[in-house]
């Protein structure tokens, strides 16, 4: 009887491994097919100008998605990232015009860090749902940004800042794309090659078991939200430089696209499963889909409908995948 159970377990494990191996190629193949199909319909898709523009467009979303991946894998969620981005951009530009470029950039990052720290402290100390906390702090962040600017965008962004971080190139790579790539690599290293990353997976899989194993769940969760705030500050640098303005309502709705990218990439909303590579695929799929629809001439209203359907489908597939993995 024991031998039969052991045999069934081996078969089940082999089946799971085979599904995982197949799953590794599904998203890259989908991205390739989407790119080929769009290129055949609209050859301008493969133009150097479009590819460079696409990389700049995806940079902000990619950076936010890195932070969102950490939150989701830990079993949480951050709905306040774009509010933190807007607040970081506003405060950064205000300081930049008085104290210089370097201090302004540092202000953007520190504003994001502090915003994430506040989120993490409320979540851990009062054991409140991350969804509720970040939903509330998102409104607070937007309100502070609106107050600081009297509801008006700040257009007096130094040209040196925009030229360097928005439109600059390094080794043929646009600066925003390079910053996003470095953020993605840093996120991958944190998740896969550090003790902190192992703790994040453990907390997302089973927080109580992680606590019983000696993991300081409160501290690690706090660090997760500090990092989501940090990525919001980095994203503020990229977006503010690219549009040459700090807007109190900047990137509104992009937090939902970041969550969608994470889910489309195959990161489980229940936590404990996923990778930065998955998120990278998810961002590419959503970005290429939007770019493709634009080039084909699909109206913005229809694009919203299509992307919404993709997000709902991804969530449903995520639930199906979880049931089959049990």
How are the SSEs ordered, and which strands pair?
Layout: H1 2-41, H2 48-73, H3 81-99, H4 101-125, H5 130-149, H6 159-165, E1 169-170, E2 173-174, H7 175-193, H8 195-205, H9 207-212, H10 217-243, H11 254-264, H12 276-296, H13 300-325
Antiparallel strand pairs: 1-2
Helix pairs in contact: 1-12, 2-7, 2-10, 2-11, 2-12, 3-4, 3-5, 3-10, 4-5, 4-10, 6-10, 7-8, 7-10, 8-10, 11-12, 11-13
Structure write-up:
Strands 1-2 form a two-stranded antiparallel sheet. The protein has a single domain (about 25-325), classed as ABC transporter involved in vitamin B12 uptake, BtuC, CATH 1.10.3470. The radius of gyration is 21 Å and the shape is globular. Strand 1 (about 170) and strand 2 form a beta hairpin. Helix 7 (about 175-195) runs antiparallel to helix 10, helix 8 crosses helix 10 and helix 11 (about 255-265) crosses helix 12 (about 275-295). Helix content is about 80%, strand content about 0%. The protein starts with a helix and ends with a helix. By secondary structure, the protein is mostly helical. The longest helix has about 40 residues, at about 1-40. The protein has 13 helices and two strands; from the N terminus they run ααααααββααααααα. Residues about 5-20 have low confidence and may be disordered.
